[in-house]
Design brief:
By secondary structure, the chain is α+β, with helices and mostly antiparallel strands. The chain has four helices and six strands; from the N terminus they run αβααβββββα. Strands 1-3-2 form a three-stranded antiparallel beta sheet. Strands 5-4-6 form a three-stranded mixed beta sheet, with no helix packed on it.
């Protein structure tokens, strides 16, 4: 289905592209000026997810974060990969480490959510 492009979609996508990290709805909401309805931002993020523009990370704290399919160096990064959540600065980053695992016969993987938690390199210095 072809979706209509709106100014809110453009703003949200630009925020995610320049962030270099996964962001929560609250973080994105706080960066939008003038303020946009929370429900609209939530709907835009989920449409981006459904359309394969962003991926959704559910962290160990239960919070949802969204990131465009780019690694920290800005390279396209489709497919399964790990994420790292820093417990000090609460930042979530996509890690460009390939995920390798096996599952029992008869199961089919549709999505993977791998979140490692600890202290990031910026907070350990």
């Amino acid at each position: 289905m072809k979706r209509r492009n709106t100014q809110t979609k453009e703003v949200v996508l630009e925020i995610l592209k320049t962030a270099g990290k996964a962001m929560s709805q609250d973080e994105i909401q706080n960066m939008i000026i003038p303020e946009v309805n929370r429900t609209t931002v939530y709907r835009v993020l989920n449409q981006f997810y459904e359309d394969g523009i962003v991926h959704k990370v559910v962290a160990d704290n239960g919070k949802q974060y969204f990131a465009v399919y780019l690694d920290c160096e800005g390279n396209a990064m489709k497919g399964h990969h790990f994420h790292f959540r820093c417990t000090k600065c609460d930042t979530i980053k996509c890690l460009s480490i390939p995920v390798s695992f096996s599952i029992p016969k008869g199961y089919q993987i549709e999505d993977v959510n791998c979140v490692l938690t600890g202290v990031c390199k910026d907070c350990t210095n």
